[in-house]
């Protein structure tokens, strides 16, 4: 287990700083206003939060004391800007950072949707590559695998740094019993939710594949002689 734990506000701040560094590096480090916009945005966040400037400032100060956030000043500017130090403090690779940030920003996810979303921050070539990244994070105490919902094809994964995410909607995976009981019928509402989750996972996987092929096309096009 990492030596440090986070509260939900700290996890949101750290997740946003990692996300913005990897997706919009020209706008990073972030001002307090930009950080507030990223923390409180309505899309790609679960749960949606309404953090005040005072709550953000307090969260930043707690992260500074944990050596996870630093402050910088642009040349000739008075505005403080904030950057994370998670990669250094926790010795994380870029794919590990991307996966951890995605879990901090959107909660527990199945591998297909997690790969599609984290791939926008750092290229993740396949579900097998994602599995290796998740396993590396798991053995070091950053994430855990959750017991699948009834009828789900794959387990979900969640980060376990922030206490608010620990075991609320799912249980950790338990060892399989020697003889599993007969499968019970899935209620219609649960079956509908499972089907929706499966569709979302496949859509996310397809989006990731389209993004990968687009990048490959651009690389091949740029490599062609004049």
Determine the strand fraction and express it as a percent band: 5-15%
Based on CA atoms alone, the radius of gyration comes out at 19 Å
Shape: globular
Spatial strand sequence of the major β-sheet = 1-3-2
What's the domain count? Answer: 2
Question: What separation lies between the terminal Cα atoms?
Answer: 53 Å
Quick one: CATH class of the largest domain?
Mainly Alpha
Q: What's the CATH architecture name of the largest domain? A: Orthogonal Bundle
Task: Name the CATH homologous superfamily of the largest domain.
Answer: Winged helix-like DNA-binding domain superfamily/Winged helix DNA-binding domain
Oligomer: single chain
- CATH fold label of the largest domain: Arc Repressor Mutant, subunit A
Class inferred from helices and paired strands: mainly alpha
Question: Largest sheet, described in full?
Answer: 3 strands, antiparallel
What is the helix tally? 8
Question: Can you describe what's shown?
Answer:
The chain has 226 residues and is mainly alpha-helical. The protein folds into 2 domains: 8-89, Winged helix-like DNA-binding domain superfamily/Winged helix DNA-binding domain (Arc Repressor Mutant, subunit A); 94-172 and 190-223, Winged helix-like DNA-binding domain superfamily/Winged helix DNA-binding domain (Arc Repressor Mutant, subunit A). It is built from 8 helices and 5 strands; from the N terminus they run αβααββααααββα. The protein has helices at residues 8-23, 32-40, 53-65, 86-89, 94-106, 111-118, 127-139, 188-223, and strands spanning 30-31, 69-73, 80-84, 143-145, 157-159. 33% of the residues are buried.
């Amino acid at each position: 287990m990492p030596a440090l734990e986070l509260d939900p506000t700290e996890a949101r701040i750290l997740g946003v700083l990692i996300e913005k560094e990897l997706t919009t590096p020209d706008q990073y480090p972030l001002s307090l206003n930009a950080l507030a916009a990223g923390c409180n945005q309505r899309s790609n966040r679960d749960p949606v939060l309404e953090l005040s400037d005072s709550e953000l400032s307090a969260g930043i100060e707690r992260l500074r004391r944990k050596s996870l956030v630093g402050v910088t000043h642009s040349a000739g500017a008075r505005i403080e800007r904030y950057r994370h130090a998670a990669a250094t403090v926790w010795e994380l690779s870029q794919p590990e950072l991307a996966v951890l940030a995605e879990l901090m920003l959107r909660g527990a996810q199945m591998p297909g949707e997690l790969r599609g979303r984290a791939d926008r921050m750092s290229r993740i070539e396949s579900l097998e590559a994602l599995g290796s990244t998740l396993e590396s994070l798991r053995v070091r105490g950053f994430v855990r695998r959750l017991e699948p919902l009834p009828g789900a094809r794959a387990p979900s994964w969640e980060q376990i740094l922030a206490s608010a995410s620990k075991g609320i909607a799912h249980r950790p995976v338990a060892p399989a019993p020697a003889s599993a009981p007969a499968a019970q019928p899935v209620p219609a509402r649960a079956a509908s939710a499972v089907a929706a989750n499966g569709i979302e996972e496949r859509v996310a996987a397809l989006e990731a594949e389209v993004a990968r092929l687009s990048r490959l096309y651009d690389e091949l096009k740029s490599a062609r002689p004049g």
